[in-house]
Design brief:
Elements lengths: L4 H18 L8 H11 L8 E3 L9 E3 H7 L16 E8 L3 H12 L4 E4 L8 H4 L4 E2 L8 H11 L6 H21 L13 E2 L9 E2 L5 H15 L3 E3 L4 E7 L4 E7 L6 E11 L23 H8 L4 E2 L4 E8 L13 H4 L4 E2 L13 H14 L4 E2 L5 E5 L3 H6 L3 H5 L1 H8 L10 E10 L2 E3 L11 E3 L4 E2 L10 H21 L8 E2 L1 H12 L22
Parallel strand pairs: 3-4, 3-11, 4-8, 11-19, 18-20
Antiparallel strand pairs: 1-2, 5-7, 6-7, 9-10, 9-21, 10-11, 12-18, 13-17, 14-16, 15-16, 16-17
Helix pairs in contact: 2-11, 4-8, 4-15, 6-7, 7-15
Bound molecules: succinic acid.
The site of succinic acid has 10 residues, from loops.
Length: 535
């Protein structure tokens, strides 16, 4: 399947204006223009997409309906009927098999903890695996953690928790070295220097990559390490509820075996949640770049146990999700395409936005072009999008660059007989990242004693908009920090008190008291597409 006839006239306009656009720098938005664009077109600003939370620590806040749906749902566990006899006791229970979970497990084991890592799907089935463009590390002469810090704060709207941002940028060079020592194959030039590129909202070329499978290469490295070091891990075993002790400190979790449908009670001195984000709840009906298990399980469990959520009113829509062909709608088209110089172009062949605005602004400009100005391109099945002019990459950097830098993307389209070195890609924003999450401190600890969080489940670090490449960095930095802190804490924790599910009972009572009558059960564990046209 190449582009159908009805789309080819629009493609000709992109080609016709390419030469003149090559020398055209589209002006960046002023802060006022950016805010106006967000107000008018960003899905976070649609009042009808939100409702007030009735129960729990964020009571009274307005959050997206889909988020309220999962946090105001009943537990899978009926506390009165459930026996809390532990099937297993460990020092540190790591819940999650992505970059955050594996980093945490590796460090905890290195520091002497007895670790059990459990994961809902297979080890490595996570958003880390799917990240394409790169990881931000300030390690070049013209850069510094201080400059990185300013970029992260600016990208997040200056509401980020500063101490978390400081931890992120200061640990970044160490984490880069750790990865490389473990065998990560960073892109390097002929002299062996790291190749770095721009991402949206970065003031320096700081994006390190492994072609366009940067996350898969991280997952390969970490998964090998977990397996080679003999860390115990169990697959297809998601957590469905946290366990507290009589003093409301976290002390393990109830796990659910997806194959046998049996529950397992694990008592742990400390717990690290690294279950990722909420892409698969499809906020505002958007498709998603996220892996199949991204159903915000950790967020739900921590909230029910009493944790506070930050910035859950803010969702990241990646500007460039595939809009054609139908089979890949919503899948990620990495920001690296724009980092390499490709422009966004409307149905007249015109640029309409600076290509590397922060993602919130870039996505809003695309939505404006399609929905506000009617200058998008419509596919035969009725999707509308704008062009991402990928053939510019070889024009700018020389023939062969695109296939070298973006081999996975090239293949993804080649399967459909679309040659992205010759023709542009049709794109539209897609749900990519949970900007907010459970509040943590610099060690990754939540307000619930002995409960730590790493990665997308947490909130505060990225403020209201994460920059590209700071998610891979986040999972490694806070995975390692949580692994260390949870191990140190585990040494002080004894298994004295009995295990308790009083928090679940109390949450159910609060739901009833507020008249929230629902059949919904959470964590969802897996998305249900039986009555849906989104995937
Ligand atoms: C991308 O490559 O555009 C996604 C990576 C990220 O979200 O950091």
């Amino acid at each position: 399947m190449s582009y159908p006839k009805e789309m080819q006239a629009a493609i000709k306009k992109v080609a016709a204006t390419r030469k003149s656009r090559m020398n055209e720098t589209y002006p960046m938005l002023s802060p006022e223009e950016k805010q106006e664009l967000l107000n008018n077109y960003h899905p976070d600003y649609r009042d009808d997409a939100f409702r007030q939370v009735q129960v729990g620590a964020n009571k009274g806040e307005s959050l997206p309906h889909e988020v309220v749906d999962i946090i105001e749902a009943r537990s899978r566990i009926e506390p009165a009927d459930f026996s809390l006899t532990a099937d297993k006791e460990v020092d540190v229970l790591v819940i999650g098999g992505g970059g955050g979970g594996c980093s945490a497990a590796l460090v905890a084991a290195e520091k002497g903890a007895e670790v059990l890592q459990v994961t809902k799907l297979r080890l490595g089935d996570a958003n880390t695996m799917m990240a394409q463009g790169g990881i931000q590390i300030a390690d070049k002469e013209n850069d510094s953690p201080a400059i990185h810090y300013l970029d992260v704060m600016g990208g997040g709207g200056f509401v980020n928790k500063p101490e978390l941002v400081k931890a992120l940028v200061m640990d970044a060079p160490k984490v880069g070295k750790w990865l490389e020592d473990l065998g990560y194959m960073f892109d390097k030039d002929e002299e062996g220097r790291m190749v770095t590129r721009h991402g949206g909202g970065t003031s320096r070329k700081r994006m390190h990559s492994a072609r366009d499978y940067s996350g898969a290469e991280i997952m390969r490295t970490l998964r090998d390490e977990v397996q080679n070091r003999g860390i115990e891990y169990i697959e297809f075993l998601p957590a469905v509820e946290l366990l507290l002790d009589e003093q409301e400190r976290c002390q393990g979790a109830i796990l659910y075996d997806l194959e046998t449908e049996e529950y397992m009670v694990v008592r742990a001195r400390t717990v690290i949640l690294a279950t990722g984000g909420f892409g698969r709840i499809h906020v505002s009906g958007f498709p998603t770049t996220n892996h199949y298990g991204a159903t915000a399980d950790g967020l739900v469990m921590a909230y029910r146990a009493g944790a506070n959520l930050l910035f859950m009113d803010s969702t990241q829509f990646h500007p460039t999700g595939a809009a054609f062909p139908e089979q890949i709608v919503g899948l990620l088209i990495t920001e690296k395409v724009r980092g390499l110089g490709a422009q966004l172009v409307n149905n007249k062949g015109e640029q309409f936005v600076y290509p590397l605005e922060t993602r919130d602004a870039e996505a809003s400009a695309i939505i404006r072009e399609c929905e506000g100005r009617n200058l998008g391109i419509t596919t035969p099945t009725g999707m509308t999008g704008v062009w991402l002019d990928s053939p510019m990459i070889d024009e700018i950097h020389g023939p062969g660059t695109l296939q070298k830098e973006l081999p996975a993307m090239y293949r993804q389209f080649d399967r459909f007989d679309i040659d992205i070195t010759k023709d542009p890609m049709l794109i539209f924003p897609t749900l990519h990242y949970q900007n907010g999450g459970v509040e943590i401190d610099q060690r990754g600890e939540t307000a619930i004693e002995n409960l730590f969080i790493a990665g997308e489940t947490s909130g505060g670090l990225h403020g209201k908009n994460r920059l590209m490449g700071n998610s891979l960095l986040d999972v490694l930095v806070f995975g390692r920090r949580a692994g260390k802190a949870a191990t140190e804490r585990a040494r002080e924790v004894s298994f004295g008190d009995s295990l308790s599910l009083k928090h679940v009972e109390s949450f159910h009572q609060q739901l009833a008291a507020k008249g929230v009558e629902t059949e919904r059960v959470s964590p969802m564990l897996l998305p249900d597409y039986s009555n849906s046209n989104i995937s």
